[in-house]
Amino acid sequence: MQGTVATFDDDTHTGTVLLDDGTELHFPAAAFDASGLRHLRLGQRIRLDHDAEGAVVKVTLPTLP
């Protein structure tokens, strides 16, 4: 799934994403840390990978595999 960064905390590496359907979704630090990214900016488009239970496990840029 994809969305737009609504909030991001550089200190905790947590944030929220506004999904295309308008739903706001939180992502944990572990999902950001799994990405290899160093920073996210507000309004940036990202892809969210999730596990079978629906928990976000990785945050990446849509252009990255």
UniProtKB/TrEMBL annotation:
InterPro entries: NA-bd_OB-fold. It comes from the Bacteria. This is Cold-shock protein. The lineage of its organism: Bacteria, Bacillati, Actinomycetota, Actinomycetes, Micromonosporales.
